[in-house]
Design brief:
The chain has helices spanning 4-12, 206-209, 227-236, 244-263, 307-315, 341-357, 367-373, 387-397, 402-405, 437-446, and strands spanning 21-22, 27-28, 33-42, 48-56, 61-66, 71-77, 84-92, 100-108, 122-129, 132-143, 148-158, 164-175, 181-193, 269-271, 290-291, 321-322, 385-386, 399-400, 423-424, 428-431, 450-454, 462-467, 479-489, 492-498, 510-514, 526-530. With 531 residues, the protein is an alpha+beta fold. Helix content is 19%, strand content 31%. The longest helix has 20 residues, at 244-263. The radius of gyration is 25 Å and the shape is globular. The two termini are 36 Å apart.
Length: 531
């Protein structure tokens, strides 16, 4: 699993710390031992993440907490090497325990110093901030080749020992050509001071002295400019430091080659370069957080039709059926850097099934509630889950609405279902007979959206068209999506599939899957909620 630091940087493209930097007039310096509280606000997404950080170069340890300590990550380096261990601590709710604190251990490459970046800031004067006289430091980067302007402002005051204390940092990105605002992030720091060895001692967490989560249960996780790469970085607002730039360029060029070679074949679908194109498959493993269910596991309700009945019913079905047209399908969402596709696929199917019964009234069910609370059914939060097991959780406990439960956090959180008053339940769920195109069509038309597992690794660069890949079944299912309809084009049947990678992926967040030959395993592990 990617470290919490990497998740933060990839999600917000910003570090809550910043650099040891120099100017001609003054030195801006930071202590090698510090603690601070803070709040990071992304004005584009509206996400506000409270955090707390600790670092000590002397003992080579650091720590970061999110959401007032709900999730903690300790980094413990070796004395003479960069390598060490990382301990991630978070709550887990099962059928027998609620919000039990667990500890997960990983190999660590390097302890994170949150104030270590290589950028040049210049002292520009003084001002008053929160009734305190502070220094203003600014950095302006203009890159005409990428049509990008980056402005950063830091408010600090100076300690008696000559080190500086951060109070506020603002980062603003503009497109030079259009003048459009491409990003705006504000970080506020509070309670800056020294860190203690006790703060950085992972042994203070009782869970880390007892049971470490068995990593064998976890989904494996964790990629010279040219014109295409320059355009890619500009379009997707990518920034790299040091040697990473060349690594990303090579990965991008390999993915670009695959896209071009495929599109030259003039097959039924197109690939494209997108926000994932500078990443390796291992780095994108967080997108693929669903494990295949037991093939002999049925739903709580046996599929209501025999094979003969299915074939008869299929004769009267329309050629095209799209639940989006009826207003039954909620907007595309983004799971972010959390392997929670299993929760999104389930919530989307239940939302659609409920909407079919309530006059298309829009519902926004809480994926976060499933991530937080379904551990007792052998699901693993941001490290993946199983469709049959998550449906058994929903059958037992229901799903809260996001408005009551709280926003999606992209983290494992405290389970709050006992405090919810508005919970939506299902009567049961049924497994669609494997490998049956007609059974899938009947289920969609009569009951609503269907959650399925697929091998999604080959579809990362999907752009448009009906996707069919003869090699897609070579690897097993690893991702959950929601089928919301079907159609026919040039005599070929396809599935309309809702993904959870954001609207900027695929066809506005959707992919059209060929119904031929169980493409990408789409007909093997399919479940439909019954309302």
């Amino acid at each position: 699993m990617a470290s919490l630091y990497i998740l933060l940087l990839s999600a917000l493209a910003f570090d809550p710390g910043f650099a040891f930097v120099l100017s001609d007039e003054k030195n801006l310096t930071w202590s090698t031992n510090y603690h601070a509280r803070g709040e990071m606000t992304n004005l584009f997404t509206g996400i506000i993440k409270p955090f707390e950080i600790w670092y000590s170069a002397e003992i080579n340890k650091s720590r970061i907490d999110f959401y007032n300590g709900m999730v903690k990550t300790f980094s413990v380096g070796e004395t003479d090497e960069d390598l060490g261990q990382e301990f991630k601590v978070y709550p887990m709710t099962t059928e027998t325990v609620t919000n039990q604190i667990v500890c997960e251990k990983h190999i660590l490459e390097k302890v994170k110093n949150f104030f270590e970046r290589e950028q040049e800031f210049e002292y520009t004067g003084d001002t008053v901030y929160n009734k305190k006289n502070v220094q203003i430091w600014k950095m302006l980067e203009v890159d005409p080749s990428e049509q990008k302007k980056l402005e950063e402002i830091i408010y600090v005051y100076e300690n008696e020992d000559g080190t500086h204390v951060p109070l506020l940092r603002e980062r603003i990105k503009h497109n030079v050509w259009s003048g459009a605002l491409d990003g705006h992030i504000i970080v506020r720091y509070f309670d800056y001071g020294p860190a203690t060895a006790e703060d950085l001692d992972v042994n203070q967490v009782e869970a880390c002295n007892e049971t470490i989560i068995d990593e064998s249960l976890k989904q494996a996780r964790l990629v010279i400019d040219d014109d295409e790469f320059l355009s890619y970085k500009l379009q997707h607002k990518k920034e790299y430091k040091g040697d990473e730039h060349e690594v990303r360029r090579q990965i991008f060029n390999e993915n670009l080659r695959k896209v071009i070679e495929h599109n030259q074949k003039n097959l039924g679908y197109k690939l494209t370069i997108n926000k994932f194109s500078d990443r390796t498959d291992a780095e994108l493993a967080h997108l693929f957080g669903t494990r295949p269910s037991d093939p002999f596991q049925e739903g709580s309700i046996v599929f209501p039709h025999t094979e003969e009945e299915v074939d008869v019913l299929a004769q009267d079905l329309p050629d095209n059926y799209d639940m989006r047209i009826g207003g039954y399908i909620s907007p595309i969402k983004n799971q972010g850097a959390c392997g929670s596709c299993w929760a999104f696929a389930t919530a989307a199917a239940v939302e659609g099934a409920l909407a079919r019964t309530n006059g298309a009234r829009d519902l926004d069910l809480s994926e976060q509630s499933i991530v937080d609370c379904a551990w007792g059914f052998r699901n693993y939060g941001c490290d993946g889950g199983f469709l049959d097991r998550v449906y058994r959780y929903v059958l037992e406990h229901g799903i809260a609405v996001e408005e009551d439960y709280g926003l999606y956090l992209e983290e494992n959180g405290y389970c709050k279902m006992k405090n919810m008053t508005k919970i939506y339940h299902i009567k049961g769920f049924t497994k669609i007979p494997s490998l049956s195109v007609n059974a899938m069509k009947v289920a969609l038309y009569k009951y609503g959206p269907v959650s399925v597992t697929i091998n999604s690794s080959p579809i990362v660069h999907y752009a448009n068209g009906i996707y069919y890949n003869v090699d897609c079944n070579d690897d097993g299912p690893n991702h959950a999506v929601t089928v919301v309809g079907y159609g026919v084009r040039d005599g070929a049947t396809y599935w309309i599939v809702k993904n959870s990678w954001g609207e900027d992926w695929g066809q506005d967040g959707y992919i059209l899957f060929s119904a031929t030959n169980n493409n990408c395993h789409i007909l093997e592990d399919a479940y439909c909620p019954i309302i």
